[in-house]
Amino acid sequence: MNICDSDTIDFSLSTIYGASKVTDVLYADVVILNTCSVRSQSEQKAFSYIGRLEEFKLQNPNLKIVIIGCMAERLGYKIKKRFSGVDLIIGSKDINITAFKIINLYFTNNYLKKNFNYKFKVIEYVTITSGCNNYCSYCIVPFVRGIEKSINYQLLIDKCSLMAKNGTKEVMLLGQNVNSYKYNGVNFSLLLKRIASIENLYRIRFMTNHPNDFDDKLIDTITNEYKICPHIHLPMQSASNKILKAMNRKYTYEYYFNLVNKLRKKIPGVSITTDIIVGFPNETERDFNDTLNAIKTIKFDGLYVFKYSARSNTTAFKMFDTVTTEEKKRRHSVILKESNKISAKIISKMIGSTQQVLAEKFDNGIIKSRTRTGHKVFINGSEKYVGKIFNVIIKSVKVNSLYGSIINKI
Ligand code: SAH
Ligand code: SF4
Q1: Which of 57, 203, 288, 322 is most open to solvent, judged by the fewest CB atoms within 10 Å of its CB?
Q2: Cβ–Cβ contacts within 10 Å for residue 23, how many?
Q3: Within a 13 Å sphere around the CA of 229, how many CA atoms are in the beta-carbon half?
Q4: Which ligand does the CA of 40 lie closest to?
Q5: Thinking of the domain 354-406, which architecture would CATH place it in?
Q6: Is 178 touching ligand 2 by the criterion CB < 6 Å?
Q7: What does the longest C-alpha to C-alpha distance in the chain come to?
Q8: DSSP secondary structure string, 143-190?
Q9: Mean pLDDT over residues 158-164, rounded?
Q10: How confident is the model at residue 109 (pLDDT cuts 50, 70, 90)?
Q11: Atom 5 of ligand 1 has which residue's CA nearest to it?
Q12: For the residues of 247-265, what is the DSSP string, one character each?
């Protein structure tokens, strides 16, 4: 979501105002730092980076430092108290006027060139909902991104069409909870169908899905529309019903497990990934083992695991953080190890199979591509393949990445 917000600002700055990106801070007039508040570690990283940016100001006193995103929303001008070199702070709720504010800060009218120098990427991110109303007890998102809002349906269609016309082959639809999208009677399933009808757009992905908003119609749409990639990111967080309740996730493990089975039955070859939090307040060894066993049973294609981080404003913040840092680390690494083992087994079964891939990038003689299920495939080739869809045969696996060779271009 942050990449998407940064792209939106980049788009406005370059298309409306004629600004362009540089490759090094040393050559910049303005540095925009987009921040995340989900865990305190992300904020610590941002703080240390701001410190380093201030040092650049010594070499270039005209450099402007702009802090945007969730940390800017949460802390506002408190950031400036700690870092006097910061020039502007714009919270995530003001994302739409960010480019305008930045231009007002620095650029003069000479900069308003109106040269359309924005280059759309092969894969573009498109935010379809902002904010969230779920108030999971650990999560800061509803406080820093506000209540859930769905973006105007027609605007989304226009945006995806414009991208497709300018070389984009795949769109990744983003939201905290994409499957609760609703705009003037258009739900997520209808939105997907409409985007799938856009000419020259070949793939549609989406994340994140909330298990409670996955209905049968949506499953049918994903099954029937070939352009929709069969990859579902479906955060489970925990498999202990006691912890799920305390997290305010509003589903049980049994419900989640049945949903996974239904998805696997109905969507051929679907890949399912998840998010897990370890060390939530009062998570006992038994609760943790429930989650570990569920991971062994479900066998996710991949997962992200996070150590619980207490965030202010959330209801869990008032709970006692019972699990020690050491124990969180241990649980984190146990899950990671197990899941890496499972993912490795799953992808090693792909050796010898034919996969349809979209080439995203070319670097040092190697094409980086992805299968429809979202697995990364590296191929020897040339730059001319970037943006193309073709079939590859999977030859080998190395550290969770696949290596293939081209069979034919589609
Ligand atoms: N809206 C999405 C995800 C939002 S944040 C969803 O509901 O699934 C991405 C992930 O960060 C979450 O799925 C969760 O696993 C993790 N996360 C969020 N808040 C956290 C916290 N306070 N501590 C640790 N992990 C957290
Ligand atoms: Fe946070 Fe829960 Fe909303 Fe996801 S669904 S953004 S975890 S409150």
Answers
A1: 322
A2: 7
A3: 27
A4: 1
A5: Beta Barrel (2.40)
A6: no
A7: 65
A8: HHH-S-EE--HHHHHHHHHHHHHTT--EEEEE-TTGGG-EETTEEHHH
A9: 90
A10: very low
A11: 38
A12: TT----HHHHHHHHHHHHH
Give the integer Cα–Cα distance in Å for 71 and 29: 22
Is ligand 2 within 6 A of the CB of residue 140? Answer: no
* Cβ of residue 275 lying under 6 Å from some atom of ligand 1: yes
244 lines ligand 2 (CB under 6 A): no
Predicted TM-score of the model (pTM)? 0.86
Question: Do you find a cis peptide bond into 208, omega within 30 degrees of 0?
Answer: yes
Atom 2, ligand 2: residue with shortest CA distance: 136
Cβ distance 169 to 203 under 8 Å? yes
CB 289 within 8 A of CB 252: no
pLDDT band at 117 (very low <50, low <70, confident <90, very high): low
**Residue 39: CB within 6 Å of ligand 1?**
yes
Task: Please say whether the beta carbons of 205 and 231 come within 8 A.
Answer: yes
- Number of neighbours of residue 282 by Cβ within 10 angstroms: 14
Using the atom order of ligand 2, give the atom closest to the CA of residue 142.
8
Which two tokens mark 161? 């069409």
CA-to-CA distance for 234 and 209, rounded, in angstroms?
5
Identify whether the C-beta of residue 245 lies closer than 8 Å to the C-beta of residue 256. no
Quick one: which H or E segment has residue 304?
A: strand 302-307
Domain definitions of the chain by residue range:
2-111, 123-348, 354-406
Under the banding of pLDDT at 50, 70 and 90, the label for residue 114 is: very low
Q: Between the CA of residue 240 and those of 66, 222, 253, 311, what are the distances in Å?
A: 42, 29, 7, 22
- Please compute, for residue 190, the number of CA atoms within 13 A of its CA located in the half-sphere on the CB side: 10
The CATH topology of domain 123-348 is pyruvate-formate lyase- activating enzyme (3.80.30)
Any idea what DSSP says for residue 300?
-
Residue 245 buriedness (CB in 10 A; 0-12 / 13-18 / 19+): middle
User: Any idea how long the chain is?
Assistant: 410
Rounded to whole angstroms, the Cα distance separating 111 from 124 reads: 26
